[in-house]
Amino acid sequence: MITKLENIFQKIQENILVKFEEFEGTPFRDKSLDSWTRKEGGGGKTAVIANGNFFDNCAVNFSSIVGKNLPEAALKNKKNISNGKFSAMGVSVISHPKNPHVPTSHMNVRLFCLFDSNGNIKDWWIGGGYDLTPYLPYRDDIKIWHKEAKHLLDSFDKTYYKNFSKECNDYFYIPHRKERRGVGGIFFDNLKDLSIENSLIFLENVAKQYLNSYVEIASKRKDTKYSQVEKEFQLIRRGRYVEFNLVYDRGTAFGLQSNGRIESILASLPAEVKWSYKKDDEYKALEKKLLKYINEDWNV
């Protein structure tokens, strides 16, 4: 059964890589594709495009691990769970495009299973979602992102979009900055409304919709000219992404707590990023405009 489940997630990874490689064109400057195993059990495949034609860097990770006790990060919102042997598998994606007019994007889909002493599944749930982090925002792009997410979720449950979009806004919030990380999307955890078979179909559809929406937006913006000032702004604002991922992100915490592969866990960080104490007027003007978008409620 595990192999069958793994095949579903590996197919998701492959589909995303095909589309991302189309953006890069040829030749690839720096592409890595590593299969790896984990001493405690399981393994995965990490694909990274770095210093590319389209991406500064992006990572498309598949992992399937097993262990004796599920890390605390995965149990944060689970109550009355008797921990024990677990299986956790999924795909995570983070894209950091070169052009600051193309937003950064993130997506992940995952399945957790807990087993009893006889090796039978005693509990399971799914989680995931996707969100968008623009630097030079376009209202039409954000509307497309949310409208298409709602259309997908409505086909499963009319309550999903309202709940999942709110969860996304709440989760991707940087308390010490008092800012959201981006303009939102959808986020869900501890979900088992459907059968396990239909839950996997749901995850496949989430990944497919993420890819379709992101490709649509990126295709419109990838050839937009940008200035050095705009590139510098992107690099500094990427610092917010790093701050969230290292301080608050439960996926990062899960990877570290489960003794995961550090190279894969940190592959989501941007290759180039800056922190600047002193900000000039051009930066302040771009940030003021961006924050209006980030602080707006985009739920449709």
Overview of this protein structure:
The protein is α+β, with helices and mostly antiparallel strands. It has one domain: oxygen-dependent coproporphyrinogen oxidase (3-Layer(aba) Sandwich). 41% of the residues lie in helices and 26% in strands. It has a 7-stranded antiparallel beta sheet with strand order 1-2-3-4-5-6-9. The chain has a two-stranded antiparallel sheet with strand order 7-8. The model has no long low-confidence stretch (mean pLDDT 91).
Any descriptors?
alpha+beta, 300 residues, single chain
Looking across the biggest beta sheet, what order are the strands in? 1-2-3-4-5-6-9
Low-confidence stretches: none
Order of helices and strands: HEEEEEEHHEEEHHHHH
Helix content: 40-55%
| Rg estimate, integer Å | 19 Å
Q: On the 0-100 scale, what is the average pLDDT?
A: 91
CATH superfamily: Coproporphyrinogen III oxidase, aerobic
* Domains (count): 1
Biggest β-sheet description: 7 strands, antiparallel
Distance between the termini: 38 Å
| Structural class category | alpha+beta
Could you give the topology of this structure?
Blueprint: H1 2-24, E1 31-37, E2 42-50, E3 55-67, E4 86-97, E5 104-115, E6 121-133, H2 139-154, H3 160-171, E7 173-174, E8 179-180, E9 185-191, H4 196-221, H5 228-247, H6 250-257, H7 262-265, H8 281-294
Antiparallel strand pairs: 1-2, 2-3, 3-4, 4-5, 5-6, 6-9, 7-8
Helix pairs in contact: 1-4, 2-3, 2-4, 5-8
